[in-house]
Amino acid sequence: MDDALAEILDSGWRLLGRGGADRRSPLHTPVVASTAADGGPDARVMVLRAADRGAATLRFHTDARSPKCAALDGAAVAVLGYHPGEAVQLRLRGHARVVRTGAEVDRIWAQSTPFARRCYLVENAPGTALAAPASGLPAWVEGRKPEEADLVPARANFALVLVDVMQIDWLHLAQDGHRRAVFTLGEASWCGEWRVP
Question: How much is the pLDDT for 56?
Protein backbone atom coordinates (compact mmCIF):
# COMPACT_ATOMS: atom_id res chain seq x y z
CA MET A 1 0.00 0.00 0.00
CA ASP A 2 1.45 3.40 -0.90
CA ASP A 3 2.09 6.12 1.72
CA ALA A 4 -0.96 8.19 0.73
CA LEU A 5 -3.29 5.21 1.15
CA ALA A 6 -1.63 4.30 4.47
CA GLU A 7 -2.20 7.86 5.76
CA ILE A 8 -5.85 7.75 4.70
CA LEU A 9 -6.35 4.46 6.55
CA ASP A 10 -4.67 5.99 9.63
CA SER A 11 -6.88 9.08 9.43
CA GLY A 12 -10.03 6.97 9.07
CA TRP A 13 -9.23 5.03 12.23
CA ARG A 14 -8.36 8.29 14.05
CA LEU A 15 -11.78 9.71 13.10
CA LEU A 16 -13.47 6.54 14.34
CA GLY A 17 -11.42 6.64 17.55
CA ARG A 18 -12.51 10.22 18.19
CA GLY A 19 -16.08 9.22 17.41
CA GLY A 20 -15.95 6.66 20.19
CA ALA A 21 -14.33 9.02 22.69
CA ASP A 22 -16.07 12.34 21.98
CA ARG A 23 -19.85 12.61 22.04
CA ARG A 24 -19.61 15.86 20.04
CA SER A 25 -17.94 14.07 17.14
CA PRO A 26 -20.19 13.55 14.10
CA LEU A 27 -18.98 9.93 14.04
CA HIS A 28 -20.23 9.31 17.59
CA THR A 29 -23.62 8.29 16.18
CA PRO A 30 -23.20 6.33 12.95
CA VAL A 31 -25.93 4.34 11.23
CA VAL A 32 -25.66 0.56 11.64
CA ALA A 33 -27.51 -1.39 8.94
CA SER A 34 -28.34 -5.05 8.63
CA THR A 35 -31.00 -7.33 7.19
CA ALA A 36 -34.24 -7.68 9.16
CA ALA A 37 -35.79 -11.04 10.03
CA ASP A 38 -38.25 -10.62 7.14
CA GLY A 39 -35.36 -10.15 4.68
CA GLY A 40 -35.83 -6.39 4.30
CA PRO A 41 -33.29 -3.71 5.15
CA ASP A 42 -32.98 -2.51 8.74
CA ALA A 43 -30.97 0.48 9.96
CA ARG A 44 -30.58 2.29 13.24
CA VAL A 45 -28.43 5.05 14.71
CA MET A 46 -26.18 3.67 17.46
CA VAL A 47 -23.71 5.35 19.79
CA LEU A 48 -20.14 4.40 18.96
CA ARG A 49 -18.36 3.71 22.27
CA ALA A 50 -14.92 2.69 20.99
CA ALA A 51 -12.94 1.91 17.85
CA ASP A 52 -9.97 -0.45 18.21
CA ARG A 53 -7.73 -0.39 15.16
CA GLY A 54 -5.52 -3.23 16.42
CA ALA A 55 -8.49 -5.57 16.77
CA ALA A 56 -10.33 -3.94 13.82
CA THR A 57 -13.49 -3.62 15.90
CA LEU A 58 -16.13 -1.06 16.72
CA ARG A 59 -17.96 -1.26 20.06
CA PHE A 60 -21.56 -0.29 20.75
CA HIS A 61 -23.74 -0.85 23.85
CA THR A 62 -27.31 -2.12 23.81
CA ASP A 63 -30.08 -3.64 25.88
CA ALA A 64 -29.64 -7.42 25.66
CA ARG A 65 -33.43 -7.79 25.36
CA SER A 66 -33.64 -5.59 22.27
CA PRO A 67 -34.81 -7.26 19.05
CA LYS A 68 -31.74 -5.78 17.35
CA CYS A 69 -29.55 -8.24 19.31
CA ALA A 70 -31.10 -11.17 17.45
CA ALA A 71 -30.90 -9.25 14.17
CA LEU A 72 -27.24 -8.29 14.60
CA ASP A 73 -25.64 -11.30 16.31
CA GLY A 74 -23.59 -13.09 13.66
CA ALA A 75 -24.96 -10.87 10.89
CA ALA A 76 -23.21 -9.02 8.13
CA VAL A 77 -23.54 -5.30 8.87
CA ALA A 78 -22.69 -1.95 7.36
CA VAL A 79 -21.75 1.10 9.42
CA LEU A 80 -22.11 4.55 7.88
CA GLY A 81 -20.79 7.83 9.24
CA TYR A 82 -20.09 11.27 7.82
CA HIS A 83 -17.77 13.93 9.24
CA PRO A 84 -18.76 17.31 7.71
CA GLY A 85 -15.71 19.14 9.08
CA GLU A 86 -13.40 16.69 7.31
CA ALA A 87 -15.79 16.19 4.37
CA VAL A 88 -15.24 12.45 4.80
CA GLN A 89 -17.78 9.66 4.52
CA LEU A 90 -16.83 6.29 6.00
CA ARG A 91 -18.71 3.16 4.98
CA LEU A 92 -17.60 0.06 6.86
CA ARG A 93 -18.57 -3.55 6.29
CA GLY A 94 -18.14 -6.39 8.73
CA HIS A 95 -19.81 -8.88 11.01
CA ALA A 96 -21.49 -8.16 14.35
CA ARG A 97 -21.26 -10.13 17.57
CA VAL A 98 -23.43 -9.61 20.65
CA VAL A 99 -21.55 -10.26 23.90
CA ARG A 100 -23.59 -10.44 27.09
CA THR A 101 -21.19 -11.97 29.62
CA GLY A 102 -17.52 -12.08 30.48
CA ALA A 103 -14.79 -9.99 32.06
CA GLU A 104 -14.74 -7.38 29.28
CA VAL A 105 -18.50 -6.78 29.53
CA ASP A 106 -18.27 -6.55 33.33
CA ARG A 107 -15.35 -4.09 33.11
CA ILE A 108 -17.15 -1.83 30.62
CA TRP A 109 -20.34 -1.97 32.71
CA ALA A 110 -18.42 -0.93 35.84
CA GLN A 111 -16.74 1.98 34.00
CA SER A 112 -20.07 3.45 32.89
CA THR A 113 -21.65 6.13 35.05
CA PRO A 114 -24.66 5.22 37.21
CA PHE A 115 -26.79 7.62 35.17
CA ALA A 116 -25.74 5.89 31.92
CA ARG A 117 -26.47 2.44 33.40
CA ARG A 118 -29.90 3.64 34.52
CA CYS A 119 -31.38 3.09 31.03
CA TYR A 120 -30.88 -0.67 31.48
CA LEU A 121 -33.44 -0.59 34.32
CA VAL A 122 -36.34 -0.31 31.85
CA GLU A 123 -38.96 -2.82 32.88
CA ASN A 124 -39.82 -4.20 29.44
CA ALA A 125 -37.71 -4.96 26.40
CA PRO A 126 -37.09 -2.11 23.94
CA GLY A 127 -39.83 -2.03 21.34
CA THR A 128 -42.57 -3.17 23.74
CA ALA A 129 -45.88 -1.40 23.02
CA LEU A 130 -47.03 1.24 25.54
CA ALA A 131 -50.43 2.83 26.12
CA ALA A 132 -48.86 6.31 26.30
CA PRO A 133 -45.44 7.94 25.80
CA ALA A 134 -43.00 6.89 28.54
CA SER A 135 -39.34 6.12 29.15
CA GLY A 136 -40.09 2.60 30.34
CA LEU A 137 -38.11 3.24 33.53
CA PRO A 138 -39.62 2.38 36.90
CA ALA A 139 -41.22 5.43 38.56
CA TRP A 140 -38.77 5.33 41.47
CA VAL A 141 -35.78 6.09 39.20
CA GLU A 142 -37.38 8.60 36.80
CA GLY A 143 -35.37 11.83 36.81
CA ARG A 144 -32.80 10.75 39.39
CA LYS A 145 -29.39 9.12 39.53
CA PRO A 146 -29.67 5.59 40.93
CA GLU A 147 -27.44 4.21 43.67
CA GLU A 148 -25.04 1.37 42.86
CA ALA A 149 -27.27 -1.12 44.67
CA ASP A 150 -30.22 -0.05 42.50
CA LEU A 151 -28.28 -0.98 39.37
CA VAL A 152 -27.53 -4.63 40.23
CA PRO A 153 -30.54 -6.04 38.31
CA ALA A 154 -29.79 -3.80 35.32
CA ARG A 155 -26.50 -5.60 34.54
CA ALA A 156 -28.37 -8.60 33.07
CA ASN A 157 -29.87 -6.26 30.45
CA PHE A 158 -26.52 -4.86 29.27
CA ALA A 159 -24.69 -6.19 26.19
CA LEU A 160 -21.97 -5.17 23.80
CA VAL A 161 -22.32 -5.18 20.05
CA LEU A 162 -18.88 -5.66 18.53
CA VAL A 163 -18.43 -5.14 14.81
CA ASP A 164 -15.45 -6.93 13.29
CA VAL A 165 -14.53 -4.54 10.47
CA MET A 166 -13.53 -6.22 7.21
CA GLN A 167 -13.72 -3.29 4.78
CA ILE A 168 -13.53 0.50 4.94
CA ASP A 169 -14.74 2.64 2.04
CA TRP A 170 -13.35 6.19 2.48
CA LEU A 171 -14.76 9.07 0.42
CA HIS A 172 -13.47 12.64 0.60
CA LEU A 173 -15.71 15.28 -0.96
CA ALA A 174 -13.95 18.30 -2.47
CA GLN A 175 -14.81 21.00 -5.02
CA ASP A 176 -11.64 20.27 -6.97
CA GLY A 177 -12.56 16.60 -7.26
CA HIS A 178 -13.64 13.86 -4.88
CA ARG A 179 -11.25 11.08 -3.83
CA ARG A 180 -12.13 7.53 -2.84
CA ALA A 181 -10.18 4.61 -1.45
CA VAL A 182 -11.27 1.15 -0.31
CA PHE A 183 -9.40 -0.87 2.31
CA THR A 184 -9.86 -4.60 2.89
CA LEU A 185 -8.52 -6.54 5.85
CA GLY A 186 -6.42 -9.47 4.66
CA GLU A 187 -4.95 -12.30 6.72
CA ALA A 188 -2.20 -10.14 8.20
CA SER A 189 -2.84 -6.54 7.25
CA TRP A 190 -4.98 -4.01 5.44
CA CYS A 191 -4.77 -3.67 1.66
CA GLY A 192 -5.91 -0.46 -0.02
CA GLU A 193 -6.66 0.76 -3.50
CA TRP A 194 -7.91 3.94 -5.09
CA ARG A 195 -11.37 3.90 -6.63
CA VAL A 196 -13.34 6.28 -8.84
CA PRO A 197 -15.53 8.32 -6.44
Answer: 97
